[in-house]
């Protein structure tokens, strides 16, 4: 029976997903959403404390389909082992969500240190390059299923197409991730591999290493970003919305929709999930 718009679901039963940075913040919300939809999920992170707490944080009936996995996304050998261990455990890899990332305290060019620059490029761009490369190699070794081999979803940022949303290092890394997303889509779409991205605004996550002290942000960068990002427009429950502040659970739902089989015609797309911030 042909699938219709009304019959499409976001069930991921028998699908296997890797989520980088999956033990906290948006990554954990994505892990929870995929588990609830029936997927097998490998949640990677570099923080032992968060990984150790992960099994207890998910629903009991989901534990057998969850594999917490310590892995640095920028480490070639570690990522190769991650993919091979995932396939050994669950039989196949269907979806990679590149979520791991760090911030740069909104530092402008003249004040950005080489350490901040290198760190942001390593985590936010080299990491997704390494994981995507290994995922694509695995996808190419798999049989087509309904004309499809696998999906890569990159968590980018509204900073990926704007200059005043973050500091120079983060902004450059996210612009680079846009290029990685589109190039992968163009080259591998004809081979049954999709590559898409979401562009969130600010989120209540652990991306800054657990520090949410806004006094540590560069004042000019904070003023530039805050000129368009407002925490609330209107009243809660009365038609208001968070302009620029992305609720984690809603962003996670968008990830599931974009990774579902019903979205196989979407490739190379960058979907804003910033509550309208990109429109300002």
UniProtKB/TrEMBL annotation:
GO terms for molecular function: oxidoreductase activity, acting on the CH-OH group of donors, NAD or NADP as acceptor; quinone binding. GO terms for biological process: fatty acid biosynthetic process. It comes from the Eukaryota. CDD domains: SDR_c. Keywords: NADP. The keyword Ligase does not apply. Signal peptide: none annotated. InterPro entries: NAD(P)-bd_dom_sf (IPR036291), Sc_DH/Rdtase_CS (IPR020904), SDR_fam (IPR002347). Belongs to the short-chain dehydrogenases/reductases (SDR) family. This is Uncharacterized protein. The lineage of its organism: Eukaryota, Fungi, Dikarya, Ascomycota, Pezizomycotina.
């Amino acid at each position: 029976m042909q699938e219709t718009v009304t019959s499409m679901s976001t069930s991921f039963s028998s699908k296997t997903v890797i989520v980088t940075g999956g033990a906290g913040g948006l990554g954990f919300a994505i892990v929870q959403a995929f588990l609830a939809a029936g997927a097998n999920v490998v949640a990677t992170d570099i923080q032992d404390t968060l990984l150790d707490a992960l099994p207890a944080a998910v629903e009991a009936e989901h534990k057998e389909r969850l594999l917490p996995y310590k892995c640095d996304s920028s480490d070639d050998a570690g990522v190769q082992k991650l993919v091979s261990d995932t396939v050994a455990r669950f039989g196949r890899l269907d979806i990679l969500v590149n979520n791991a990332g760090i911030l740069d305290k909104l530092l402008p060019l003249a004040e950005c240190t080489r350490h901040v620059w290198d760190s942001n490029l390593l985590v936010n761009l080299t990491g997704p390059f390494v994981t995507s490369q290994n995922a694509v190699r695995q996808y190419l070794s798999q049989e087509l299923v309904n004309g499809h081999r696998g999906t890569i979803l990159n968590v980018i940022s509204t900073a990926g197409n704007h200059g005043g949303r973050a500091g120079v290092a983060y902004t450059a890394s996210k612009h680079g991730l846009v290029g990685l997303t589109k190039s992968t889509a163009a080259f591998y779409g004809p081979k049954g591999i999709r590559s898409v991205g979401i562009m969130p605004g600010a989120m209540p996550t652990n991306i800054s290493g657990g520090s949410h002290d806004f006094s540590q942000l560069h004042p000019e960068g904070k003023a530039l970003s805050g000129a368009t990002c407002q925490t609330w427009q209107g009243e809660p429950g009365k038609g208001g919305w968070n302009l620029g502040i992305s609720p984690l659970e809603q962003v996670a739902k968008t990830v599931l929709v974009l990774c579902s089989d019903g979205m196989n015609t979407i490739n190379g797309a960058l979907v804003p999930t910033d509550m309208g911030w990109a429109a300002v």
